[in-house]
UniProtKB/TrEMBL annotation:
Residues 245-404 are annotated as: 2-C-methyl-D-erythritol 2,4-cyclodiphosphate synthase. The record marks 21, 29, 277, 376 as: Transition state stabilizer. This is Bifunctional enzyme IspD/IspF. The keyword Kinase does not apply.
C-alpha cells in the first residue's frame, strides 16, 4: 500500500447535454427547478461545500449562458466557478473541462468528473473517492452492485437470456482520477475517434488504467427522464408543518358578599359572589380569550363590550360558544383547553369533573381534552385576602392548510 498523497482536487461538472430523454418542456433538465433551485445549483453547492474541492469547472452548452448565470446566482456559492463550453457528446464535454482545468489550474493533481444532473451525492461519497486516490489509485469508480435480476431482451421484446448479476455494478459519478492520466486517456480516445464512451471510467479502461471500485450511493441518482426530476423535486420539498396554534387568556373578578360563584359554567354555593357585568365566570372568560387568540380574533371585550346592556347577567357560556364558533368558521379544530383557577375558596376539587364535562359540552370536544386545575394563592395578595378569583387558560387549535 502506498503512502497517502497530498491531493489537489479539481471538480469538472458536465452540464452541456440537451436532456433529450427528459423531454423539451421546461428546457434543459440541468436547469429545471427542484426544491429551491435549478438542478445544477444543488450540484455546485455540494461541491463548493466540500472542503476537498480546490477548483470548480462547469462545462455548459453555448446556448445556455443565461440559464447558467441564473443558476449560479441562485446557488449563492462563494467559490469561483470556471465556465467552459462543451461539445456534442458527453465525452467531448469532459475533454473540454479537463483541458481547461489543466491549463487554468496548474497545481491541480486530481480530478473528479461529475454529471451536473446528479445533485444528491454526499460528502461521504467524495471522501471514499478521495481516499482511494490518496492511496495511489489513478482511476476510481463509485458504483452500486446491481440488485435486480438482469435479462437480455430481443427486438421483439422477448427475453433472450438471463444475465448473471454477480460482479455487475451500476456506474455513478464523480469518477475520480489522476488528472494527467485521465487527460492523456481522453486525448488518446479523441484522437482515435473509434467509439463514443458514455463514462470516463470506460475511457480509463480503454487506455489500460486499472479502475478501482468504491462503494457508490443508491441515493446518488442521475436525473435522466422527467419522472426523475419530479421525484427529485418531491425529495427536496419542504415538509408541511402542522398549523397547531396555542392561545392564552387571563381574567380576574372581584369577590363580594353573596351566595355563590359560577366557575366553568358550574354554580358553587359559597358565602361570596363574583362581581361582573355578566355572570362573572372568570374561567370561561379566560378560556374565551385563549380561543380567540388562536386566530387573532381580538378578545372577549371586542365581541361582548361591558357597556352593552344585553350582556348584563348573561351566562358566560354564550361567550365561550361564540369564540368556539369563530374558531370553527375559520376551519379550526379545538385540540384541548386547560384552565387554572387561583382561588382561596370555594374548593374546586369536588366540582372539577362536572366543570370538565361542561367545558367538553360547550366546546363540543371530548372530556379528556378538557382540563381544570385549581390552586390557592397561599393567603398572599388579593386572591389570598379573598378579594377576588383569577383564572389562566390555554387552548390549542389545529388549523388545516388553506386549499391550494
Ligand atoms: N454533449 C453532452 C452530453 C451530456 N453532457 C452531460 O453529461 C451528463 C450525462 O447525463 P445524461 O443523462 O446522459 O445527459 P444528456 O445527454 O443531457 O441526456 P440525454 O441523453 O437524454 O439527451 C449530464 O449532466 C449532461 O449535461 C454534456 O455535458 N455534454
Ligand atoms: C457517467 C454516467 O452517469 C454513469 O452512469 C452515465 O454513463 C451517463 O450517461 P448515460 O448516457 O445516461 O449512460
Amino acid at each position: 500500500m502506498q503512502a497517502k498523497k497530498q491531493l489537489q482536487i479539481g471538480i469538472v461538472v458536465v452540464a452541456a447535454g440537451r436532456g433529450e430523454r427528459a423531454g423539451q418542456e421546461g428546457g434543459p433538465k440541468q436547469y429545471r427547478r427542484i426544491g429551491d433551485a435549478p438542478v445544477i445549483s444543488h450540484t455546485l453547492r455540494r461541491f463548493a461545500a466540500w472542503p476537498g474541492t480546490a477548483c470548480l469547472v462547469a462545462v455548459t452548452h453555448l446556448d445556455d449562458d443565461a440559464l447558467f448565470d441564473h443558476a449560479l446566482e441562485i446557488s449563492r456559492i462563494a467559490m469561483p466557478v470556471m465556465r467552459v463550453h462543451g461539445g456534442a457528446t458527453r465525452q467531448a464535454s469532459v475533454l473540454a473541462g479537463l483541458r481547461a482545468l489543466r491549463q487554468q489550474a496548474p497545481d491541480i493533481t486530481h480530478v473528479m468528473i461529475h454529471d451536473g444532473v446528479r445533485p444528491f451525492f454526499d460528502a461521504a461519497l467524495l471522501e471514499r473517492c478521495a481516499a482511494a486516490l490518496a492511496q495511489g489509485d489513478k482511476a476510481v469508480l463509485p458504483a452500486v452492485a446491481v440488485a435486480d435480476t438482469l435479462k437480455r431482451g430481443d427486438a421483439q421484446a422477448l427475453v433472450s437470456a438471463t444475465v448473471p448479476r454477480a460482479g455487475l455494478f451500476a456506474a455513478q459519478t464523480p469518477q475520480s482520477f489522476d488528472l494527467d492520466a485521465i487527460l492523456a486517456a481522453h486525448e488518446a480516445a479523441a484522437a482515435d475517434g473509434g467509439q463514443d464512451f458514455t463514462d470516463d471510467a470506460g475511457i480509463a479502461e480503454w487506455a489500460g488504467l486499472a479502475v478501482r471500485l468504491v462503494e457508490g450511493d443508491a441515493g446518488n441518482v442521475k436525473l435522466t427522464v422527467k419522472k426523475d426530476i419530479d421525484m427529485a423535486d418531491q425529495r427536496l420539498a419542504t415538509p408541511a408543518i402542522p398549523d397547531i396554534r396555542t392561545g392564552n387568556g387571563y381574567d380576574v373578578h372581584r369577590l363580594v358578599a353573596g351566595d355563590g360563584v359560577t366557575l366553568c359554567g358550574v354554580f358553587i354555593p359559597h358565602d361570596q359572589a363574583l362581581l361582573g357585568h355578566s355572570d362573572a365566570d372568570v374561567a370561561l372568560h379566560a378560556l374565551t380569550d385563549a380561543l380567540l387568540a388562536t386566530c387573532g380574533a381580538g378578545d372577549i371585550g371586542d365581541h361582548f363590550p361591558p357597556s352593552d346592556p344585553q350582556w348584563r347577567g348573561a351566562p358566560s357560556r354564550i361567550f365561550l360558544e361564540h369564540a368556539a364558533r369563530i374558531v370553527r368558521d375559520k376551519g379550526g379544530v379545538i385540540l384541548n383547553a386547560d384552565i387554572s383557577l387561583i382561588a382561596e375558596a370555594p374548593k374546586v376539587g369536588p366540582h372539577r369533573e362536572t366543570m370538565r364535562a361542561r367545558l367538553a359540552e360547550m366546546l363540543a370536544i371530548s372530556i379528556d381534552r378538557c382540563s381544570v386545575k385549581a390552586t390557592t394563592n397561599e393567603t398572599i395578595g388579593f386572591v389570598g385576602r379573598r378579594e377576588g378569583i383569577a383564572a389562566i387558560a390555554t387552548a390549542s387549535v389545529f388549523y388545516p392548510p388553506e386549499p391550494a
